[in-house]
Specification:
Protein name: Aminoacylase
Structural class: alpha/beta
GO cellular component, one term: cytosol
Number of strands: 23
Distance between the termini: 35 Å
Helix content: 25-40%
Largest sheet: 9 strands, mixed
Radius of gyration: 25 Å
GO molecular function: hydrolase activity, acting on carbon-nitrogen (but not peptide) bonds, in cyclic amides
């Protein structure tokens, strides 16, 4: 047993304490999981281990306020893909989905699989593994089970509204009828009990392309979307009275309705302010000015007139989404492609039947070309930056990253389509190899437009081609402005979801890089926005700050490596044993040199340590 005063001494660091104040050069000493001393010239002889952080930054552990790690944490509690990026606290139970009520399996109903599969684009095989790890059946047992777990990052939890409805009404009733008065009272009671247990609040969802995945309900949306305004008002009164948080997404089908629901934040209208964290603010490629409406509405609600407290979560990088064929969250937005995605992941025959069904093809062509060709209101709205659909369908925006023909890798689908057309007109030199020539020969000569080209790709390769497209924050032109906006908060990283389509584990670091490009003062502000500010908003004590006696969750960052790092060039698709499946992962090795949780090093010199996942480090955070 150590006889030294401190376990670890970090010397000569540039310290951002999370307050937003300018950084100071100092040393930090850690003892028994707490910050034991801070100052200049702390003696090396008093510490078991000394880390020289000359030229490095030290910040509080970063918070990820929007994740779907609910499933992974019970399979691999250390969450190694999180801590390598300097994140030490994660929030789960977002978007009305979670596992707080247990597996909720009844007969052949499997709500976790049914709700998560298409909303978060997680294969059923992965979800079934996660559901098998569930050993609890109440919110109290769920919160308590973290106490005996070798948890890596701290975890804060929302009550997921879809699961609350299922718990009280059953899955079938939750998507087919209104709750009875007795059921509403029961929901209020369960939610009130959960607030006693320390849950952060409640999450709901309003996005129109969030569907169930199991038959016979593949044409139904998740349960939260069947709730009336009156139901939400009653449940959120429980959250409001406890000064907890409502996490939600907008009802984008109807902006007037969305703003009506968002008005629930108002203390003037509803007696007491409701803290509201909503998705999301970014510069959408097809609707570059829509963020003005959301931020303007938040400013109105947060004014003295309405006495609200809401922000929109801002992604710290460009919103880049990968697709396996057409299987991705983007194409759930179109009715025809949602039908295709609703087929089981391995149901190639079912997808081919649709792709060759003339009625479906007609629907697909209508969806694909809607607002893009011809005259009419839809085209005018698109030109004005108010399109009916936000999913890009321009082949020039889609870049092969996992192409079925090697020559196509890194090219846009438009590049390939153009060459196919020239090849079919007799320019044989457009085929650069035998493989490409064979591929070109398999394309039909009856393709009238890019809709036919996409159909041809899907029929030939199914999910066997990957491409990415930037949906928002293209070029990151306005991203820093959003991250710093007073009516926004860095978040919307979706870590743990969309496992083959997105990878934003590193979004916090990208936010810091954007700040660093501007000034050190901006870095100090950004550190606050990633640490103490969200901790205060979500009611989390003892995280997000560096001060004497605080839990020693902290990160050491190499600013030179940060400046030279490109997040877009460091996302990979890799096989992960945990899931027995491929996953999109982020890599920022060298940027974060050390991550500490509760005084223990969990990431050091490019690798996780033995401490991670072998003993309890983080904890379930109970809202203050």
């Amino acid at each position: 047993m150590s006889r030294k005063t401190w376990d670890t001494l970090i010397q000569n660091a540039t310290v951002f304490d999370g307050s937003g104040d300018k950084p100071r050069e100092m040393d930090i000493a850690i003892k028994r999981g707490k910050i034991a001393a801070m100052g200049m010239f702390l003696p090396r002889s008093m510490a078991d281990e000394v880390i020289d952080a000359t030229g490095k930054w030290v910040t509080p552990g970063l918070l990820d306020i929007h994740t779907h790690l609910d499933l992974e944490v019970d399979l691999e509690p250390g969450l190694p893909e999180v801590v390598r990026h300097g994140t030490t606290t994660v929030l789960v139970g977002n978007c009305s989905l979670g596992t707080a009520f247990g597996s909720q399996r009844v007969g052949d109903q499997d709500p976790i699989v049914d709700c998560f599969t298409r909303v978060e684009n997680i294969p059923k095989s992965v979800l079934r593994k996660a559901a098998e790890a569930v050993t609890w059946d109440s919110t109290g047992e769920y919160m308590d089970h973290f106490d005996d777990m070798p948890l890596g990052p701290n975890i804060g939890i929302f009550i997921p509204h879809s699961m609350l409805r299922i718990e009280v009404m059953g899955l079938e009733a939750s998507i087919s009828r209104e709750p009875t008065e007795a059921e509403l009272v029961r929901m209020e009671s369960l939610l009130d009990t959960a607030m006693d247990q320390g849950y952060l609040g409640m999450s709901t969802d309003g996005l129109p392309f969030h569907y169930l995945a199991n038959s016979p309900h593949t044409d139904k949306r998740i349960p939260t979307q069947f709730a009336s305004f009156g139901e939400l008002k009653r449940l959120l009164r429980v959250v409001r009275n406890r000064n907890r948080v409502w996490q939600t997404t907008p009802i984008i089908e109807n902006r007037a309705k969305a703003f009506l629901y968002f008005a629930l934040t108002s203390g003037r209208l509803f007696g007491k302010t409701l803290k509201t964290s909503a998705l999301s603010v970014m510069e959408f490629v097809l609707a570059p000015k829509v963020h003005r409406g959301f931020l303007g509405f938040a400013a109105l609600m947060n004014s003295k007139l309405f006495k609200g407290n809401m922000h929109f979560q801002a992604l710290g990088t460009n919103f880049r989404v990968w697709s396996d064929g057409i299987v991705s969250p983007l194409f759930e937005e179109l009715d025809s492609t949602a039908e295709l995605i609703a087929k089981e992941y391995d149901d190639v025959e079912g997808r081919m039947a649709l792709l060759n069904d003339p009625a479906w093809v007609e629907r697909f062509r209508s969806d694909w070309l809607h607002g893009r060709v011809g005259k009419g209101l839809a085209g005018l709205k698109t030109k004005l930056g108010m399109p009916d659909n936000l999913v890009p369908r321009e082949l020039r925006m889609m870049i092969f990253d996992g192409a079925p023909v090697s020559e196509w890798e890194g090219e846009s689908l438009q590049d390939v389509y153009n060459r196919v057309q020239r090849y079919q007109r007799g320019q044989s030199d457009q085929a650069r190899s035998d493989a490409e020539r064979e591929a070109f020969d398999r394309f039909p000569r009856t393709m009238a437009d890019d809709a036919d080209f996409m159909l041809a790709l899907l029929r030939e390769y199914d999910k066997g081609f990957r491409f990415w497209v930037d949906i928002g924050n293209q070029g990151k032109r306005a991203t820093l402005d959003f991250l710093l906006h007073k009516n926004a908060m860095p978040g919307f990283n979706d870590s743990g979801a969309h496992i083959t389509n997105m990878a934003f584990f590193d979004s916090n670091l990208s936010s810091l890089k954007l700040a660093y490009n501007q000034s050190m003062e901006t870095v100090a502000t950004m550190v606050k926005r990633l640490t103490s500010e969200p901790a205060a908003f979500f009611g989390l004590e003892d995280v997000g700050k560096l001060e004497l006696g605080a839990q020693a969750d902290l990160v050491i960052i190499d600013p030179e490596a940060l400046a030279n790092w490109d997040d877009n060039e460091n996302r990979i698709l890799a096989y992960r044993e945990l899931f027995e499946h491929n996953q999109m992962l982020s890599r920022s090795d060298g940027v974060v040199t050390h991550t500490f949780i509760n005084g223990e090093q969990v990431w050091c010199d490019g690798a996780v340590t033995e401490a991670l996942g072998s003993k309890p480090l983080g904890r379930a955070l109970r809202a203050a």
